[in-house]
Write a structure and sequence with these properties.
seven-stranded antiparallel sheet
């Protein structure tokens, strides 16, 4: 018998997904962050866990984007947030073995953005991340001290092939070791295995760059009072910071003024 995923979202505080539960298993990690209740647009990011809607950037300015710090509203079947340069609508529905979220961004033609379903998952130290072998993977500067070779001079990232770009194994989360790694993988689908539980995350967006971002923080961040947080984040775009995006590294609004995409979460998945 298939058991559907139960979803809880918090529209008043950035549209954050606060729970993703199936058969007693909670997939989303959370932390106490009471200061989140009083944020304003432009504030530094307050990490409360769950799944955040990060848009139009993840890193850079505004920190983790412009949607997480604003209240959302329910309009018909859609959850909607209005920001200075765009409007984002999200319609979430449960299916027999998962969740489908359909998104519509409305903005001026030519508007460029990065979006990430910033999903911080509650994973054990035995969890594995399955993405197709050989997918191009970008590692970001916080990873430099973990690599045997020198970081490329002046580069914003180093590149290699999944799952061991530049000699660093990324598909295994493992126990806390004081490290923090950020990466972006050229793939549209991944599957997380945690003991007997499996969750897949898949992204569809016609004509837009898609990827899977990884935040593997095993007690290495922040410098003061570090904690464990493991993010598996379907993304439109191929960089964390919109300011660093090359010509093909960000989504772009076409002449219609709309970009549409779909995020699908499925339990009991198969590897890509």
């Amino acid at each position: 018998m298939t058991v559907p995923l139960d979803i809880v979202t918090d529209l008043a505080h950035g549209g954050r997904w606060t729970s993703l539960r199936v058969a007693g298993r909670e997939w989303l990690w959370r932390r106490e962050a009471p200061e989140r209740d009083n944020v304003s647009p432009g504030d530094a990011f307050v990490d409360a866990g769950g799944l955040e809607e990060c848009i139009p950037t993840v890193r850079g300015a505004p920190d983790h984007g412009d949607a997480w710090s604003r209240p959302w509203t329910r309009e018909g079947e859609a959850d909607v947030v209005r920001c200075d340069r765009f409007t984002l609508a999200r319609t979430v529905r449960a299916e027999t073995d998962g969740v489908v979220a359909d998104y519509v961004l409305t903005a001026d033609p030519g508007f460029r953005f990065v979006w990430a379903a910033h999903a911080l998952l509650d994973l054990s130290d035995r969890a594995l991340l399955c993405i197709r072998d050989g997918a191009r993977t970008r590692l970001f500067p916080e990873t430099a001290r973990l690599l045997d070779q020198a970081w490329p001079d002046g580069a914003s990232w180093a590149e290699g092939d999944w799952p061991v770009p530049c000699g660093l194994r990324l598909d295994r989360f493992g126990p806390d070791d004081g490290t923090a790694v950020g990466a972006v993988v050229d793939a549209s689908h991944c599957c997380v295995h945690d003991r007997t539980d499996r969750l897949s995350l898949a992204l569809e967006a016609d004509g837009q760059p898609v990827s899977i971002a990884l935040w593997r923080n095993l007690g290495g961040f922040p410098a003061q009072h570090p904690y464990r947080s493991t993010g598996v984040e379907p993304m439109l775009g191929r960089v964390f910071d919109l300011a660093e995006a090359g010509p093909d590294d960000a989504a772009r609004v076409p002449a219609s003024g709309e970009v549409r995409w779909r995020l699908t979460l499925t339990v009991n998945c198969r590897c890509p």
